[in-house]
Specification:
Length: about 220
């Protein structure tokens, strides 16, 4: 894979075909756990690792996977990777594991991961699938972190709280910018509003870019 192809795959995952912003896949965990930046970071990294590794494994074994059973095989590969990630979280990040709860095992059902296995990894080489997984996974993880950052800032008036879930130690209040915030932002409706704002911002920027190119 050339450097130009690598850049193209990364741009596709980060912006042009971002799973959360454009394809609107994997919205259940995206909306459910992004009440803080740390939660978004934890689930984003877990999803990134699973997506990248599953792409590589599907691409490496695609010649031996029968078409009739390909989707169950993809799910088996993804479930095995998710089990490993879940055990790592339970062993090294127990507080974060408790905070994310069922949404780590539910990575198995993330449509974005199965879709990349079917649409890209099963039809391309290992290197290309690796970079596709990195691009798509990073785009999804950055969206989780951005929404978590926004909701925490607006809803709690702080940023980077609960970092003790990652590093241990005493409970961390993060950087408190204001006393309190808009409670709705950290409740379920706030997740929908935050995602809608993110999609609207992307569409606006894309529209401006198209206008500039036209002129």
């Amino acid at each position: 894979m050339t450097s130009g192809q690598f850049v193209d795959r990364m741009q596709t995952g980060l912006w042009r075909q971002n799973p959360g912003l454009v394809q609107l896949l994997g919205l259940c965990p995206l909306l459910a756990v992004t009440s803080t930046f740390v939660n978004g970071l934890g689930l984003g990294i877990a999803t990134l690792v699973v997506l990248t590794c599953s792409n590589v494994l599907v691409s490496a074994t695609r010649r031996w996977i029968l078409a009739e059973i390909r989707v169950p095989i993809y799910v088996l590969i993804i479930a095995s990777l998710v089990t490993c990630i879940e055990l790592v979280f339970k062993a090294w990040f127990p507080a974060l594991d408790r905070s994310l709860g069922i949404f780590i095992p539910l990575i198995v059902t993330n449509c974005a991961i199965v879709a990349r296995a079917e649409v890209f990894a099963s039809r391309n080489g290992v290197v290309a699938s690796l970079f596709d997984g990195l691009g798509m996974g990073t785009g999804f993880a950055l969206l989780l972190m951005a929404i978590g950052f926004f909701r925490e800032l607006v809803g709690r008036g702080s940023i980077f709280s609960q970092f003790d879930k990652l590093f241990g130690g005493d409970p961390s209040a993060g950087l408190i910018l204001v006393d309190g915030g808009w409670l709705l932002a950290v409740l379920p409706p706030g997740a929908f509003f935050s995602l809608a704002l993110a999609v609207a911002l992307k569409n606006y920027l894309d529209g401006r870019q198209d206008t500039v190119r036209a002129t």
